[in-house]
Amino acid sequence: MQLDAGVSSSGGTADESAVNKYDRFLKWLLDNGAHFPLLELREYESDVRGVHAKEALAGDQVVVEIPLRCLITVEMGKESDVGKAVLASNLPLDAPKHIFLMLFMLTDRRNPSSFFKPYYDILPSSLSNMPIFWTDEELAYLKGSHLLTQIEERKRAIEADYAAIADVAPSLPSICSVEEFKWARMCVCSRNFGLEVNRIRTAALVPYADMLNHQRPRETKWTFDNARQAFTITTLQPIAPGAQVYDSYGQKCNHRFLLNYGFAVENNREADNFCPNEVGLWQERARKGERERGTMG
């Protein structure tokens, strides 16, 4: 499966290398039983890509099937040496499921013969779109926003998790630096899927499925199909040939999109015209009333 012509070749060796890593990734998936014959990847610029329909897609059609063996699950992280130390210590971590996914990925990607190497190779090397990695100059654009507080809280929580895990698993600093730990946290935060796999509630990194961009209202749905033993994406409506195929990351306000995914939606409104960014006046009045009652009491 070759990448679409949307991948530029004008840059020579660097661009050819980028195309080759995607070809290796797609071949790895196909060799291990994945199916997505009606879809193709398009890269718009470096590390910016999407999934498009190669031909017209019908509604209620399974268009992606990724077998279980290609998924990275929470349970795999728990089985790692550092994961076992974390479990034994019962640490109060900020996002435990994310942590176990991170621990597996950070440990396993150091192995040049890892089964998942083709997947690791196509992950972004930097996440400069994520606010926790922004410069002071970039953060200045958020002056007056509560998001600045949330960004600082996220940074402190990740750093605290790193220090706590390093205390119970001294090998952690040899596996990753705190900056690599932050990178992994945001990779997992923006890419993981909450699933039920063989009656076990878990979370997973799902190669290829995590390349679908966000749009509302949703036009696809996903699940883990126990009969197929695979993660599947199914269309909810017909999709035109050449059109981008989207996932929905859920109904969220823009501060959550920006903090967790590194983007904001310009017109963030639902089909019924509800805007998740807005705080209703009645809510503000209710909170004000509660404060006043608290003062009077």
From TrEMBL:
Select a single GO molecular function from the record's annotations and give it. protein-lysine N-methyltransferase activity
Name of a matching Pfam family:
SET
Q: Which residue ranges does the record assign to the SET domain?
A: 37-250
- Source organism, top-level taxon: Eukaryota
Please list the coiled coil stretches. Answer: none
Which InterPro entries does the protein's record reference? Answer: SET_dom, SET_dom_sf, SETD3_SETD6_MTase
Q: What is this protein called?
A: Set domain containing protein
Record lineage = Eukaryota, Sar, Stramenopiles, Ochrophyta, Eustigmatophyceae
